[in-house]
Write a sequence for this structure.
């Protein structure tokens, strides 16, 4: 006992030192995931070899059981497949748009009815609520903006075409970022009008026009068209005629795009309006 | 006694503020981070009990860790510095030894003594700190380069502060 006390008084510094360093190391290993994982790996490295051997042996012994389970899984999957090929299968995929950090869900669809010769044109798509289509989703063709969904049934949905005098889209000039309102003037199915671009902005024929993403319907950067010609109107603004890249006369395959973060954006914006 | 405690409390707070508000924001080209708060450990009286020195080192390390978002790393380095300080003091002792009840300052033992004392402890502190921070030896020489450069800067700043303090006294 006396020896122990002697020892303690003699080495009390060392003991305090070791305890405090122990606390520091403990904090390092728990508080910081990087250091934490490195330490764990170092510790695990010793036991891993043994664990691997045990696992190898036991898995060899239970091969028969594993085979049976795999065979059952195979049968189940085959049955699923049989059921699925009979259905019309919608193609869902989600795209991480890395350029603008927005997440959209795409659904492919086919246009089964379309018109271009009215003032208020609509087209119909062969996908509906059952395939996840909702009102106010964006519709794009492989070449650019096509319209937006205005109504859905179970298996079909109707979209307001870009060629509709009620259709308004926030669009910008890609080269300099100035944005304005884009709409159709009801005349030529190949041209739309971009207004509200101030006159000090440099516009040249052939400039690319793309969607801004402000409305939370269209993803940012979707192509709309190119500048065809422009005139000064009123006091300060240009009236730019945009040649639409989507050919509505042969619109067939389209993508319907749902903005998964739209509700978040609109709810936030509502607070300040 | 109370006076001493109060004075070191003030030094403690000033150094932590200086470190957190000023020196933590200095990062030249990713290589140099001066850590000046270690000066608190340097300045404590020579005859301070070792356990108290260790606990004070632990405390200042924890606080710096808290503000730097680096859990435990500074704590480890400061406790190590506090632990080796008595040995360093013994190693660099001047010819006629230390006066009892004195503080390790430049005005008491001269510039050369203070420089070697500071250099040794800062080097130990920075070495443990930087290697613990990267937690690997793959970039060994890059880390070593950082240790040396940062040590030079920290020592320079500590000497400047100490020089200014001596002028005050």
């Amino acid at each position: 006992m006396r020896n122990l006390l002697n020892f303690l008084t003699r080495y009390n510094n060392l003991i305090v030192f070791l305890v405090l360093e122990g606390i520091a190391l403990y904090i390092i290993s728990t508080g910081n995931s990087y250091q934490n994982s490195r330490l764990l790996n170092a510790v695990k490295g010793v036991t891993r070899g043994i664990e691997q051997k045990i696992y190898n042996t036991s898995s060899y012994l239970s091969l028969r059981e594993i085979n049976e389970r795999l065979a059952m899984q195979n049968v189940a999957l085959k049955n699923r497949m049989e059921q699925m090929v009979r259905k019309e299968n919608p193609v869902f995929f989600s795209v991480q748009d890395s350029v603008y950090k927005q997440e959209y869900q795409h659904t492919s669809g086919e246009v089964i009815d379309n018109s271009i010769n009215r003032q208020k044109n609509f087209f119909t798509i062969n996908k509906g609520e059952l395939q996840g289509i909702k009102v106010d989703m964006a519709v794009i063709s492989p070449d650019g903006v096509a319209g937006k969904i205005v109504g859905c049934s179970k298996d079909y949905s109707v979209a307001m075409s870009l060629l509709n005098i009620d259709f308004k889209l926030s669009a910008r000039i890609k080269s300099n970022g100035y944005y304005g309102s884009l709409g159709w003037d009801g005349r030529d199915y190949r041209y739309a009008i971009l207004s509200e671009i101030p006159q000090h902005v440099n516009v040249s024929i052939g400039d690319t026009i793309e969607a801004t993403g402000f409305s939370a319907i269209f993803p940012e950067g979707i192509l709309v068209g190119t500048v065809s010609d422009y005139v000064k109107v009123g006091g300060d603004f240009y009236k730019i005629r945009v040649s639409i890249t989507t050919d509505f006369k042969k619109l067939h395959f389209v993508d319907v795009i749902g903005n998964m973060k739209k509700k978040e954006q609109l709810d936030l914006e509502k607070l300040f309006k | 006694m109370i006076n001493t405690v109060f004075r070191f409390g003030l030094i403690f707070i000033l150094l932590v503020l200086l470190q957190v508000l000023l020196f933590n924001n200095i990062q030249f080209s990713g290589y140099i981070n001066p850590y000046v708060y270690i000066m608190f450990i340097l300045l404590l009286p020579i005859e301070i009990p070792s356990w108290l020195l260790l606990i004070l080192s632990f405390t200042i390390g924890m606080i710096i860790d808290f503000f730097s978002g680096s859990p435990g790393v500074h704590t480890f380095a400061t406790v190590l510095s506090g632990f080796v300080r008595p040995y360093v003091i013994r190693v660099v002792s001047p010819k006629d030894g230390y006066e009892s009840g004195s503080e390790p300052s430049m005005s008491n033992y001269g510039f050369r003594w203070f420089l070697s004392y500071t250099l040794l402890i800062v080097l130990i502190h920075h070495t443990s700190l930087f290697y613990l921070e990267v937690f690997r030896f793959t970039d060994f020489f890059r880390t070593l380069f950082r240790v040396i450069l940062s040590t030079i800067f920290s020592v320079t700043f500590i000497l400047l502060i100490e020089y200014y303090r001596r002028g005050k006294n």
Q: What stands out?
A: Residues 92-270 of chain A form a domain with the Thrombin, subunit H fold (CATH 2.40.10.340).
